[in-house]
Amino acid sequence: MKSSRSKVLHEVCGRTMLDRALDAVEGLGPQRTVVVVGHRREQVEEHLAALPFAIETAFQAEQRGTGHAVAVALEQLGELSGEVIVTYADVPLLSSHTLEAMLSQHRQYGDQVTVLTAQVPDPTGYGRILRDEAGHVQGIVEHKDADEEQLLINEINSGILLFDAVALREGLSHLDTNNAQGELYLTDVLGIARERGNRVGAYTTTDLWQTEGVNDRAQLARMNAEQNRRLCHHWMREGVTILDPATTWIHESVTLEEDVTLLPNTHLEGATSIGAGSVIGPEVTLTDVGVGRDCRIVRSHVLLSEIGDGAEVGPYAYLRPGSQLGSQAKVGTFVETKNSEIGDGAKVPHQSYVGDATIGAGVNIGAGVIFANYDGVSKHRTTVGEGAFVGSNSTLVAPLEIADGSFVAGGSAITDAVGAGELAIGRARQRNIPDWVERNRPDTVTGRVARDQAPGTPQQSTAQQDDASSAAREEDQ
Q1: How far apart are CA 474 and CA 94, in angstroms?
Q2: Which terminal CB of the chain, N or C, has fewer other CB atoms within 10 Å?
């Protein structure tokens, strides 16, 4: 992966590949789950420790092959009976459903070993399934150890195996490194089990994605695209309109109600939920956002926020963590909010910053209003009461309270509390200086126009101007 992060901690549609592998096996209700760790062990163990259920780890100090990795895990598990499933954390699309079907067949046929296989058009790099003339599984040969005839086989080993615990222990004790890579191959246990008269079976999946692993960024991108395609298909079947699934990205943890519409280039991440009838996009990113019913969000970026029913956001709005919009509220063009509550029906239509504020219901915030919340050391809050009006290009310097039904004149810098029903004006009185332009800017365009408009300057009528222009043209000719 060429990354400082463990391969299995890279994500597919918002979940790490490791979490996806654990989801698949946890769906079977195992008594114990062990993750074998090696390279970047500390990262993996830290991630596992944060999960809501207990996962054991076993450290493989030397990477001596898959057989050795399983042997390390068995040492931790001690005495075992029943079935043991071996999966891989870099096969992110494996499902619990497939493992359940594999386990059911394993029990039905009384097999001691079952391997998950698939028929693929290009088996390069995969181990091949060896069968006898009757179709019974004889073993697995790795690609590097296969002869020319075996390389023609297109049934591949996914690496996912199901064992009877006794057969697994016995097979591991007979492994050797007599192969092209000098490693202990777990797949050799199949041949050993077969030689000892144990039943070996194969469960073949037709969903080839469930057998594909990830070893580089290109493969990771393919997995993301495929899983996203599946998620979009699922939500469209659930009554969501997705205009362009190819440019719409949805995390696994997102929830959508009926009649939601997602327009192109919409990204829904984390624990985002969207209520019925809302239209999202185009070009919207929502991360951990709760969106109510019948909302409209366009060309905006929203993080860790709540948006009430019927609210409007954008275009080009940025809602940072802690933003809460009431029902029918509006946050418009080039507005940024942070840690603020904007009440029902309140409007911040354009070009404003709202930080650490509480804005009451029905408030109107004019264009260019700034909530100055930071004094260079600490953040402070501003409260704007219900029905208040804040004129354009005003600055509200926190800490500050503006009461219900008050009015702030445009262009004001407000530093003191404003009482209910009061008009607050925080600006210098306008003073007009006669003839200033003509005296101080006489040679500019403004100065010439001012001089022409000055009292006492002869003004030509339109007809006179036309006659003068005609005469000038005749002289030029």
Answers
A1: 90
A2: C
Q: Crossing angle, helix 188-195 and helix 165-172, to 10 degrees?
A: 100
Q: Is 142 annotated as a binding residue?
A: yes
Over residues 326-380, the pLDDT tens digits come to 999 999 999 999 999 999 999 999 999 999 999 999 999 999 999 999 999 999 9
Q: Given CATH 2.40.50.140, say whether it is the number of domain 218-424.
A: no
Residues 271 and 290: their CA atoms lie apart, in Å, by 8
For 50, the 3-state DSSP assignment is coil
Alpha-carbon distance 370 to 334, whole Å? Answer: 12
pLDDT of residue 474: 45
Quick one: pLDDT at residue 460?
Answer: 53
Q: What is the pLDDT of residue 309?
A: 99
Low-confidence ranges of the chain (pLDDT < 50): 462-463, 468-469, 471-477
d(CA 430, CA 423): 17
Q: How many CA atoms lie within 13 A of 8 on its CB side?
A: 24
Domain boundaries, the chain: 7-206, 218-424, 438-476
Tokens of 340: 């603020």
CA proximity to 276, closest of 264, 255, 260:
260
The answer to whether 338 is annotated as binding is yes
| Residues taking part in catalysis | 350
Tokens of 467: 């006659």
Q: Is 364 annotated as a binding residue?
A: yes
Q: Which fold has domain 7-206?
A: Spore Coat Polysaccharide Biosynthesis Protein SpsA; Chain A (3.90.550)
Separation CA 142–CA 181 (nearest Å): 10
* DSSP classification of residue 52: S
